[in-house]
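The step that takes the researchers longest sounds almost clerical: writing a folded protein down as plain text. Below is the pair of lines this work produces for a single protein:

——
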Amino acid sequence: MPDAQFVEVGEGVALATYSWGALDAPPVVLVHGFASSTRDTWVLTGWARMLEREGFRVLGIDLRGHGASEKPHDVAGYTVRQMASDVESVLDTFLIDEALYVGYSLGARIGWEVVRDLGDRIPRAVLGGVPDGIPLEHLDVDQVRRYIADSTPVTDERTRSYLDLTERVPGNDLSALLALALGMRDSRAVDPDPQNAPQQPILFATGTDDAVIEGSRSLAAAAPQSTFFEIPGRHHFNAPGSRHFRMAALEFLRG
């Protein structure tokens, strides 16, 4: 990992960013998923190394509440609109007028907004494992709060799976990620709107064994210049490590 460079975004939150490649190379922005980080989603899986080797300038962003970025506990800061604005602020800070975008899971949901809102500034994007519907709607918030307060065991299976996902990455802050979950669930604007889909070329990629695959297909069908790629033999949590996914994305980004 290169040293983090910190960028101040809305309300004084500092985001950790990481750069690879020549400054004059075509830039690609990488945005990870919920409870993950640039290192976990893009470095350990070989994406950053591959893109740098193929002649891109790579810019990874740790989303607010994740990785080495600041982790506020204020629910209001965790709307998709705010996190999409964070990405735009990073591009502005690095004086990047145009960039390709690659996002996975939460990073793909944010990417839908970024690609739609920034128009020609994001000429092409890869959105992996993007779900439709209300995110984290099955999370039992009361059980999570009790677990944070006094380690009361979590009995709800789906909630326990979210906690396991959160706790597997060192440095994650459960209170910050609970605030993120609440901020996303409480904002109805978070749902990708098929009636207002991005117009740029987009590669949608989802694992064949991922529970969100049909939702991803429906979003891809709404985007007029989309391509859909099934990542063979992968579920939601191991799809970023797929060589098939990396190669399909690379071919698409080359245009």
